[in-house]
User: Fold this.
Amino acid sequence: MSRPKVFVARRIPDEGLNRIAAAADVDVWPDRLPPSSDVLRERVADCEGLVSLLTDRVSAALLAAAPRLRVVSNFAVGFNNVDVPACTAHGVCVGNTPGVLTDATADIAVTLLLAATRRLGECTTDAKQGRWLTWEPLGWLGQDLAGRTLGIVGMGRIGFATAKRLHHGWGMKVLYTARTPKPDADRKLGAQHVELNTLLAESDFVSVHADLNQTTKGLFGAEQFRRMKPSAVFVNTSRGPLVDQPALAAALRAGTIFAAGLDVTEPEPLPADHELFTLPNCVIAPHVASATVGTRDAMARLCAENLLAGLRGDPLPHWVNPEAAGNRRA
Ligand code: DGY
Assistant:
């Protein structure tokens, strides 16, 4: 029996790659940068499986050009790079990697929150560049953390893990938005489900964990930053397009809010001469929330399991579009 053909759009950890290679003929894109959409389409044209990354657009055009494609296994929990309705219409299964990156992502949300709140980017740069003149009573003053109010926008797994760290570690009171109240968060963290405007007005820290979709795109604009406290710190580890970046830059420059910590931007990478990089009160990481050895290994394992289940015609362990079950490509 011939082995299925799989295109892997970047080198992923061996934990996943070796499992895929044991069952399929694998074509791995060797470069650090992603294939262009034309090249991606060409390479997937005769494949049964695709391992995509958040930088690879899985479009209706790609699906139409890949008649044998049965499964797209996204090496990420987010899947806004995949046209899921088009995959479902073509009978192509889509998998993602939830759960395994919750702790690593919550760790980065807290790291950015601490760094922005205590002006770590600014003061470490100043120290390195000769601006550390002496111990100054008024130098690099940040904000306090203990007992303050944390606003979680999107109380899913990662929002909960972030709130847990800050509630138990720093005694923060937790407010949150979510489509429905989360009894677990209410019970375990004493958290309170509120409207976004209440959260913005009352929180000292606002941490974003919502998915990117048509309703959340541009959710944070000038009006939302105006509603926040001048001492507030804004953190985004979700997706860049949730934020109107010119509005964020204006709010940081004017002191409408105190600081921001971003792991995600629009575009990615953010150009080195981008205005946000010039602001001392903005800490920016290059989308590294899931970047630990153990987490990336676990993502690779899940990714391989989804892919192999899709190739076998089994239910995917983490199936984004189970509604495709009825018309799966054979
Ligand atoms: C994801 O998985 O969606 C992250 O953004 C990358 O790990």
